[in-house]
Structures are given as C-alpha cells and as structure tokens.
Design a protein that fits this description.
Chain B: InterPro entries: AAA+_ATPase, ABC_transporter-like_ATP-bd, ABC_transporter-like_CS, ACT-like_dom_sf, MetN_ABC, MetN_ABC_transporter-like, NIL_domain, P-loop_NTPase. Helix content of chain A is about 80%, strand content about 0%. Chain A is an all-alpha fold. The longest helix of chain A has about 40 residues. Classes of the chains: A mainly alpha, B alpha/beta. Chains A and B meet through helix 6 and helix 7 of A and helix 3, strand 6 and helix 4 of B.
Chain lengths: ~220, ~350
C-alpha cells in the first residue's frame, strides 16, 4: 500500500470508530430508557399501561423493519435538520443512532424482563417506589446482561457503518467497497477485513470481560 | 369478633385484651371467579408469634400480601397499628411498608449488592446517610451472626446465611411487624431449626410481632404461640398451639398434623376389625398435667393389664400433650373399665376396633 493509501486507511479506521462509538453512545442513552419503558408498561410491570406499551412496541418494530440503507436515505431531511448537512461522517451518525436505538431497546427489554420478580416484590415490600425499583433492582440486577447486549449492538453498528459510505461518511467499509471491490485492490480489501475482525474481537473480548466482572450471580 | 368456632379457655381471652398490631375483618380477594380469600377475620397481637398454616393454594400467600398492600382486597378492613390501609394509594402505602418487614422463601436478596448493602437498602430508601446506614447494617449483621460476611455477595452464602441476611434486612428499619412467607421452606431441617431459633430469639429480645405462613406443622410447633389454619380462603380453626395440637377440630387440621402426631402403626391398622373379637384398640388424647401420669394410674386400675401400642407425651408451650394407642385384653369388663377410667381423667377416648388373635 502506498503512503497515501495508508493515510486513507488510518483516517477510515478512525471514522468507523467515531461513528460506532458516537451512535453506540446515543443508542445506549436513548435505548435503555426505551427498554425500561417497554418493561415497565408491560402487563404486570411496575407502571402497567398497555396502550403506551403497544404504541412504543409499534414504533420500535416500525424502525426495526426498515432496511438500514433505506433508513439512511429516508432520514436525510431529519439529518439535515439536526446536523445541518446530509453528507459526511457526522451526518451518518444520525441514521445509525436512530437504527440502533430501537435495536438496543429490545435487547435491554429482554435483559430487564429476566430480573426476578421476587426482587421487585422485596423492594416494594420495604417501601421503595418505582424509581427505587429501577435504580436499585432492575438496572443493577440486569447490568451484566445489559452490557452483553450493548456489546452486540456496537458490533452490529460497525457492520451498519459500512453502508454509511453511501452518503459520503467514509469509514473502513466504504474504503473496502470503493478500493477493494470497485478498483480490485485486493490488498486493501484483505487489510480492511483483517482490521474489522480484530476490532470486532477486541470489542467482544472487552465486553465479555466487563460482564464477568459485573456478574455476582454465581 | 364473629368467629365461626368457639373460643378456647382463659389464656386466649387474656390475649384479646392485648394491643392488636394487625386486625383483619371480613377480608375478601377474588382472582376472576375464584375466591383466594373468602371472608377472613384475624387479629395479631403485639409481641406474639402467630402461625398461619394451610396447604398450597389455600390463600395464605395472598393474605400475607394484603397486610403490606402488595395485594389489594376486594372487600373488608385491614388495620395495621390501628390504621385502616385498604383505601391507601401506592404512595401512601410506601411509608407504612417501612413499619413492616418481610422475609421470603427464596430470600430475594439483590445479587448485585453486597450483604451490607442489602441490609442497608431499606435505610437508603428512608434517606439515611451512607455512614449511618452501614453502621446500622453492621449491628444487624452482628445480631444475626454474620458480622464476617458484610462485604461478601449473596452468591457466596449458604441458604441459611442468605435467610439471615434477609432477616437482618427486614429488621433494618425497626419494623413493628415481621411477615415471614415460607421463610424456611427452601432450607434443610437443621438450618430450618437454626433460623426458627433466631426468629424466636428476635421475638423475645426485641418484642417483635411475627406473622409467619407455612405449610409445615413442625414450624408452627417449634415457634408459634398461636396458630390459625386456613383452607380454601377461610380461617377454619384458631387457638393456642398446644390446644390445637391436643384437639384438632377440623379434618384439614388433622391432616396437616398427621405427619407429626403419632398414629396407629400401619400393620396394626391393617388387622383392625369391627367385630368384637380379640384385643380392643383405643386411641387416647389428653392434654394437661395428668397426661404424664395417666398410664401409671391406668395400670393400677386394670387388673388384666394393657399394652401400649404406640404414642407418648410431648411438650408444646410448656403444656403436656399426650396421644396413645392402647391395646386392652378383651377379658370380662377390662375395656369398659379402661374407657371409664380414662374419660374420668379428662381424656378423649376413641374405640378404634379389635385385633383378632391378640387375646
């Protein structure tokens, strides 16, 4: 690879990392409360409200059923409103976050639903309110599982960010398509795939380590 | 009080004068069409240990959850320390629940918190500072004999230790009442005995009122002052433990007691016939000071002697409770004289039948 290529490679790597981390952070901050709301409003939940539960469920399903490449284009007006432009890395973070939020919300919902109901009952019996239950029971007890779900979300985002090249966001995926695939530069393709494998393995390893440290159930 | 059964002797009337921590009257709770609680009236007096026993599905779990508002009754009145709680909102119930500790069959400790954090949680909810609540948690862990485990996580503890943490946590906020929901059902017999001993100790030391539910008469016998039997959502029998053990009036109580009371050995029961041939088998129940000397007196009164088939005397709340099975030789008036002697001394005698070949 030429020095210019190497520079491009490094820039693409950081673009992928920034897109993944930024949209991952937003999906965590928005998806966890959404997941909590899905669990709390479900039948038998701590704030049972079936109408709100159905509405939230429908919104989540709606976003999750649109293919990401279409979401990327369909959300252009929204992106332009938020970022000021519909082109580039920062613009790609908007659709990535909007796609990852309902995805993580479902993951969080599953994790939170697994929390033993007896623990919620125990904290209610000691006079705790809903907020106490969320803060002292649901989130801490589900934390290892919430972290595992977030690890999966981050890795999914790395894959999705490859499509963000379609709106000029750059990133490793875009590099692989433009140079490796369209210009037949096999070295670039192999290098990109190798780096992505290492990146995915590193995130999974770090996630697993964290889960192990947080889990006191066994 | 409109009790469907007559009240026993003087001891109970004395208790009625004591302050009531819990007073239920006419409590109903239905799930769909099935009544889970069907008109329960029950009083728990200050400082006593009341055992509520019933089979699974009898409504005891629902009933105990009505006391801290985890379940809402459809009808009836529930008073905790004189205050009606049935109309209260969830927010109004929260401070009240801090007056009521609860322990559970599966302990329900938070796995992500250390032992001391678990014990301190009710105090955190009350808004205590970290320093004060950890100091209080240390005191309580000392009380339940787990001082060395403050920094451990519950997963590192045995079942008995977990329940001790559960008890410490239930006591943290200084409750007026402790509810125990099958607290020893997941424990082995030895650990069960130790946990019951601890509860009894706490009852004596702190004067804490305890309402425990169980399906095991053994638990009632070793710890309760009074027992109430619940069946199909109704209290069918209630009284001091020794009196219910000595004289169970309902079939359900007799069946719950069958595991721990002596009964006629299977091989004798199989040979029983109703025709008057051979030895007469009597079932004898007696409680009170005479229980221990009854047999000595009987052997003096019966020239033909008798055979003790099975049974003995046990002591419940310092009361002697006897249950014997006797075989009387059929010679002349032996059986009739035995029955007369036993009844004269206050025993309840039942002629169970005859065993041919034993004469």
């Amino acid at each position: 690879m030429s020095p210019v290529m190497i520079e491009l490679f490094i820039r693409s790597f950081f673009e992928t990392v920034i897109m993944t981390v930024a949209s991952g952070f937003i999906s965590l901050v928005a998806g966890l409360p959404l997941g909590l709301a899905l669990v709390a409003t479900a039948k038998g939940g701590i704030a049972e409200n079936l109408w709100i539960n159905r509405l939230l469920g429908a919104i989540v399903n709606g976003f999750r059923s649109v293919p990401f490449i279409i979401l990327l284009v369909a959300l252009i007006p929204v992106t332009r409103f938020i970022v000021g432009t519909s082109i580039g890395m920062w613009a790609a973070i908007v659709p990535l976050s909007i796609a990852a939020t309902p995805y993580y919300a479902r993951m969080a919902e599953v994790s939170l639903r697994e929390v033993d109901r007896g623990l919620i009952e125990a904290v209610r019996a000691m006079g705790g309110n809903r907020w106490t239950i969320v803060r002292e029971v649901l989130v801490p007890e589900a934390l290892p599982s919430l972290v595992a779900g977030f690890t999966v979300t981050l890795i999914t985002l790395i894959g999705a960010s490859a499509m963000a090249g379609a709106i000029g966001a750059g990133g490793l995926g875009d590099l692989a398509i433009r140079y490796g695939y369209q210009r037949f530069e096999t070295t670039v393709m192999v290098a990109v795939v190798a780096v992505l494998i290492v990146l995915v393995c590193a995130i999974q390893w770090a996630g697993d380590r964290l889960v192990l440290r947080l889990d006191h159930k066994h | 009080m409109t009790s469907p059964f007559p009240q026993a002797g003087g001891a109970e009337q004395g208790e009625n004068r004591r302050e009531a921590v819990v007073r239920l009257s006419g409590v109903h709770r239905h799930f769909g069409d099935t009544p889970a609680i069907d008109g329960v009236s029950l009083t728990v007096h200050k400082g006593e240990i009341l055992g509520l026993i019933g089979r699974s599905g009898a409504g005891k779990s629902t009933l105990i959850r009505c006391l801290n508002g985890l379940e809402r009754p459809d009808r009836g009145s529930i008073k905790i320390e004189g205050r009606e709680i049935t109309g209260l909102s969830e927010e109004q119930l929260q401070p009240l629940r801090r007056r009521i500790g609860m322990i559970f069959q599966h302990f329900n400790l938070l796995s992500a918190k250390t032992v001391e954090e678990n014990v301190a949680l009710p105090l955190k909810i009350e808004g205590w500072s970290t320093e004060k609540r950890l100091a209080r948690a240390a005191e309580l862990l000392d009380l339940v004999g787990l001082s060395g485990k403050a920094r451990s996580y519950p997963s590192a503890l045995s079942g008995g230790q977990k329940q001790r943490v559960g008890i410490a946590r239930a006591l943290a906020a200084g409750p007026a009442l402790l509810l125990s929901d099958e607290a020893t059902s997941a424990l082995d017999p030895e650990t069960t005995a130790a946990i019951l001993e601890l509860l009894k100790d706490i009852n004596a030391k702190l004067g804490l009122t305890i309402l425990l539910i169980t399906h095991e008469m053994e638990v009632i016998r070793s710890i309760a002052d009074r027992v109430a039997v619940i069946d199909a959502g109704r209290i069918v029998e209630e009284g001091p433990v020794w009196s219910v053990f000595a004289n169970p009036r309902t079939a359900i109580t007799q069946s719950l007691l069958s595991g721990i009371r002596p009964h006629l050995p299977q091989h004798v029961a199989a040979r029983l016939v109703s025709e008057p041939v051979g030895e007469v088998v009597l079932g004898v129940d007696l409680s009170g000071p005479d229980a221990g000397v009854l047999l000595a007196g009987l052997s003096g009164a019966l020239a033909g002697g008798f055979r003790l088939i099975h049974g003995g005397v046990e002591h419940i709340q310092q009361q002697s409770v006897a249950r014997f099975f006797l075989g009387i030789p059929p010679a002349s008036d032996g059986p009739a004289r035995a029955v007369a002697y036993l009844e004269r001394h206050g025993a309840k005698v039942e002629v169970l039948g005859h065993v041919p070949g034993h004469d």
